[in-house]
Design a protein that fits this description.
The structure is a homodimer. The first copy, chain A, has 11 helices and 19 strands. By secondary structure, chain A is of the alpha+beta class. A 6-stranded mixed sheet of chain A has the order 4-3-2-1-5-6, sandwiched between helices. In chain A, helix 7 packs across helix 8 and helix 10 runs antiparallel to helix 11. The longest helix of chain A is centred in the middle third of the chain and has 24 residues. Chain A is elongated, with a radius of gyration of 23 Å. At the A-B interface, helix 5 and helix 8 of A face helix 5 and helix 8 of B.
Chain lengths: ~375, ~375
């Protein structure tokens, strides 16, 4: 217990070393959890040059003993403040060999109010806003994390299959969403990764459609579903688009023909991008390959988002494929691939899978669910 | 459409006037929504000295036209940044009569990274970290908001009643949670207000227990449930604790006697606090009345949280009753009252209702659900 977390903290301390930081205050709860194993909230992690201390309160005292017994912890009682605890931790030789004076903070998670309070309490220290130090570590998954995400994806798929079997024509987008989210729980998920998207016909042309209570499955030609289960702190994230009974019928043959031709283009973009994924491949180039397929088919104006994003403890995790992406694929990154074409007033098709970079290529972790299933 | 939001923006502009701010950048999505009617995400609101402009992107273009057609909007295309839009809005005489140089930002929502970017882009402007300006406005509800919260509470109660009728002895905490959350959706909720707490026996002694898959209802003496539905952007938040079939049985008569004696104390704390709630009453005094009941009964060490918090668009909204609370009750505030006693190894009892301050007292909005139901 705690070995993985301790390795992660060592990696962050290496970054601190490289950047001449003699302290780091981690406030993002996902990062605190990643670096300690602690699953609670409202707690900060102080990392000095020689050790780490979790700053929490009495609500979490028992939980800390269970989840991260190997880490130093300072527990705030009624009347104390977290910054008071921090002052103590900074002065404690178990964590810091000397008074820290150059301290890293998470620029994207630390609020201005907190920074002002820190500056008020530690006027002689310099606070350095850092960008994604822990997120970058998080983007490379270890074996346990890969296995957790695999299980989250399995739950994601099983729930979808139950939904497809039990859906009835009188259901609205909201009904389908509620059933799907209930099924993810029943299949072993702790929660959903994000609010599910269920969109009929023209609604599917909005990449972030919120399910509605009007319109029924039986009156629609197509459905787009973007969903994912969360389990043990890790998420899955998939999208499928399919023709309904009505959409498959003779009466809708024009709709069907268009659906199938667009589906083919999106699938080609999806497949060509996945073919390129391997350690060392440029994230921007991978985005471009998919984008070129869609552009050359004449739908460039109908695809307005990036090709994919990292997944892990959160659904939009560090990294991914986009026209502005920096960097290259590294082994054990897990990234979505999700090209789409959205035609206002008609509908939208997106195919999304979760892809793991392996030593010499990649594995589609969600390949158990066919793209047209 | 938009009249309520426009009144709210006027109130914020009054604050700006009082504080000599000639601009305000609102980034908290709940506040953006409160001030505009826009329900999407990733969008900022710029308020100049003469008008307001929503800064968003193409995903939300249609939604903005539907939800807040009366407000200025700047839509970011691919390649543009939100700060680029902000620069345009600040220079636009429709929003600002002159170049703004003292700009309010939300201290608790603006990140250090964003502030640094703002300072880089607008080096001559002063950014003033403000504390809860919009939250304070939000704490006083208008008629429509009260009606929305009433409906959210009704859904919260109906779902609980269905759960109580359908729960079976083989269910775990997780099973009960999943059914309850499903029922809130089925009764008309859009979502849950927060992850529901369902805790058996000793688990109920942890005020923030996460439901487990081990242990069954039939083997437990008591259950504590803390839950709430969200509807149309507003939340309910209730807690009930009750004896199970086993807890009511002869074999458990000692457990039952203790449960009933503690329940009585918590209920007295709950009732005495509610009796005091009216405009002008001190929020700290109201907390103290409940705390004194529990302390005098000898359980002061087993009640470690504040008496209640504001509810509205989020479940932990501005204001509330606690030993450090500032200020007084104002008409049309809605605050929870939720004293509790938590005995490690045994169980915990909390009774939580949602209370509306009326002109000469208060109304328990959740009175339709008996405290022992």
């Amino acid at each position: 217990m705690g070995l993985r977390e301790s390795l992660r903290r060592e990696k962050l301390m290496k970054v601190m070393d490289d950047e001449n930081l003699d302290g780091y205050l981690v406030v993002d709860p996902v990062n605190v959890s990643y670096l300690t194993g602690f699953q609670g909230e409202d707690s900060f992690l102080w990392i000095g040059d020689v050790g780490a201390c979790l700053l929490s309160d009495t609500r979490f005292e028992e939980q800390i003993k269970e989840e991260c017994p190997d880490i130093g912890a300072a527990i705030r009682c009624s009347g104390q403040t977290t910054l008071g605890l921090l002052r103590g931790a900074m002065a404690d030789s178990a964590f810091s060999s000397k008074a820290p004076n150059r301290i890293g903070i998470e620029g994207a998670s630390t609020t201005v109010a907190l920074l002002n309070a820190l500056r008020g309490m530690f006027p002689s220290a310099e606070f350095v806003a850092r960008n994604s130090d822990v997120e970058r570590l998080r983007s490379i998954k270890d074996e346990t994390e890969i296995s957790e995400i695999r299980q989250a994806i399995d739950i994601t798929i099983r729930a979808y299959r139950v939904l497809r079997k039990t859906a009835t024509n009188d259901m609205t987008e909201v009904d389908l969403r509620d059933e799907l989210e209930y099924r993810m729980r029943k299949e072993g998920g702790d929660d959903v990764s994000f609010p599910s998207i269920v969109a009929f016909d023209a609604r599917a042309a909005l990449p972030h459609a919120i399910p509605q209570r009007k319109g029924q499955l039986g009156d629609s030609n197509m459905v787009l579903i973007d969903w994912g289960a969360k389990r043990n702190g890790y998420v899955g994230d998939l999208t499928r688009a399919f023709l309904t009974e009505k959409g498959e019928s003779l009466a809708s043959r024009e709709y069907r023909a268009r659906f199938e031709s667009i589906f083919k283009i999106v699938l080609e973009a999806h497949d060509k991008a996945i073919e390129m994924i391997k350690p060392g491949a440029s994230c921007r180039e991978i985005d471009k390959v998919a984008r070129d397929v869609i552009r050359e088919a004449g739908y460039g104006d109908y695809y307005g988002h990036g090709l994919g994003h990292g997944i892990g403890r959160v659904v939009h995790d560090y990294g991914g494929f986009s026209p502005s992406a920096q960097g290259v694929v590294e082994e054990n990154m897990i990234i979505t691939v999700e090209p789409g074409i959205y035609l206002p007033g008609w509908g939208g098709i997106r195919i999304e899978d979760d892809v793991l970079a392996t030593p010499d290529g990649c594995e589609i972790m969600s390949s158990n669910l066919r793209v047209d299933e």
